[in-house]
Amino acid sequence: MNGGKKLENNNGGFNMNNSPIIEIKVDEEWLEAFARDYVKQLYDERLQPEWLTLADLEQITRHEKKWVIENIINDPYVQKNGIAKKAGMNTKSKWIVDAERIRPFLKRLFASFPDR
User: Fold this and answer.
1) Can you tell me the distance from the alpha carbon of 96 to that of 85, in angstroms, rounded to the nearest whole number?
2) Are 101 and 83 in contact (CB under 8 A)?
3) Domains of the chain by residue range
4) pLDDT tens sequence across 11-48
5) How many other CB atoms are there within 10 angstroms of residue 95's CB atom?
6) How many Å separate Cα 19 from the centre of its chain?
7) 5 alpha carbon, distance to own chain's centre
8) Cys staple from 63: which of 29, 55, 67, 83, with CB 3.0 to 4.6 Å?
9) How many CB atoms lie under 10 A from the CB of residue 51?
10) Which secondary structure element, helix H or strand E, spans residue 68, and what is its range?
C-alpha cells in the first residue's frame, strides 16, 4: 500500500487506521545467540533420533545391510556394550542402535580404513 515506505505521522503513535504503532528494539547479538541455542535445543530434543535402524546405518555408512550387520551390528564391542539390540523378543525383530553411543564407534571404524 505504502510502497514499503515507513509511515511518518504526527498522530501520537497511531497509523491511518487509528491502530497503535509499536516499535520494539532488540539486541541483535542476544537475539542471534538465543535463536541459535533454541534451534540446537529443538534439534537435540526433537529431531535427533535416540535410536537408529539398519536403514539409517545403511544411509550413514553408504554400505548395504549385509555389510552393516557384519561390520557394525556383530562387532564384539557393539554387542558387549549393548549399543545394538533387537527391538522385540523374537528372532525376526528389527535391529535398533543407540544413536549417541554408536557415533564414536563409527568414527573409530572409519578412521581405521585405509585411504583410497
Assistant:
1) 6
2) yes
3) 28-116
4) 566 677 788 888 889 899 999 999 999 888 877 776 67
5) 18
6) 42
7) 40
8) 67
9) 15
10) helix 65-68
Distance (Å, rounded) from C-alpha 111 to C-alpha 19?
A: 63
Q: Kindly state the cell numbers that stand for 99.
A: 544413536
Kind of pairing between the strands at 51-53 and 84-86: unpaired
List all residues 6 or more positions away from 98 whose beta carbon is below 8 Å from its beta carbon: 50, 51, 52, 82, 83, 84
State which H helix or E strand residue 65 sits in: helix 65-68
Residue 60 and residue 110 in contact, taking contact as beta carbons nearer than 8 Å: no
pTM (two decimals):
0.56
Residue 8's identity, in one-letter code, is E
